[in-house]
């Protein structure tokens, strides 16, 4: 059984300082990153790198997102204690744990069964309790639990899936990297039933959001 020690806490504190230098401002996000034991979501072989700003393989040809990307997307959601958030792409569950640590009520969907099972086990072991984890296709969102205060997509989407926009509350935000090889982070704020305000932020590189046929 891997442990979380003072040494790991020290590495997390340094990571939080790095994220501050990179202009992450939300104390709620920084506090969560300072608490979630990222190394326990990775293969033990990567433990010494767990608190560097790097992406890593998590099996099934997928990667855990960079800590900066997790922090940036979490900040862009502008959600907090008690907000209802849908995550598309649970992966190993690290981003899910960060949102849980922020007091967010999290629903998350993962399309790869091995990762869905892994995240479920890992989150429970670490006492994180997202409201529900689903094995399924994130392009459709989660109609039965809509509307959401925020929706975060953690894979590169070739286009913005319509159901995700329609499942936002008025005042809610969709944070989604859009593009093929590289992606531009898009944030859609639902201003009223019919109007969405779009903002874009910098380039990122994610694994692709896969459809039914891939
Ligand atoms: N949130 C993760 C990032 C995982 S990488 C973290 O904390 O690091 C992106 C994840 O999206 C992968 O696990 C991949 O399997 C998943 N994914 C890809 N297409 C998907 C889809 N259509 N629906 C749900 N999950 C999808």
Q: What would your notes on this structure say?
A:
With 214 residues, the chain is α/β, with parallel strands linked by helices. It has a single domain, classed as 3-Layer(aba) Sandwich (Rossmann fold), CATH 3.40.50.150. Helices cover 29% and strands 26% of the residues. It has helices at residues 6-21, 27-35, 67-77, 94-101, 113-125, 162-166; strands at residues 56-59, 62-64, 84-88, 105-110, 132-135, 148-153, 168-178, 183-190, 196-204. The strands form two sheets. The chain has a seven-stranded mixed beta sheet with strand order 5-4-3-6-7-8-9. Strands 1-2 form a two-stranded antiparallel sheet. The longest helix is centred in the N-terminal third of the chain and has 16 residues, at 6-21. 41% of the residues are buried. The mean pLDDT is 94. S-adenosyl-L-homocysteine (SAH) binds next to strand 2, helix 4 and strand 4.
Summarize the structure.
The chain contains six helices and nine strands; from the N terminus they run ααββαβαβαββαβββ.
Biggest β-sheet, characterized? 7 strands, mixed
Structural class: alpha/beta
The level of helicity is 25-40%
Termini, distance in Å?
A: 36 Å
Approximately what portion of the residues adopt beta-strand conformation?
25-35%
Unreliable residue runs: none
Please tell me what the overall shape is.
globular
CATH topology: Rossmann fold
Overall number of strands: 9
Q: Which strand order do you get reading across the main beta sheet?
A: 5-4-3-6-7-8-9
Radius of gyration: 16 Å
Mean of the pLDDT scores? 94
Please, what is the CATH homologous superfamily?
A: Vaccinia Virus protein VP39
Number of helical regions: 6
What is the string of helix and strand elements?
HHEEHEHEHEEHEEE
Overall structural domain count: 1
Bound small molecules, which ones?
S-adenosyl-L-homocysteine
CATH C-level label = Alpha Beta
> Which architecture would the CATH scheme give at its second level?
3-Layer(aba) Sandwich
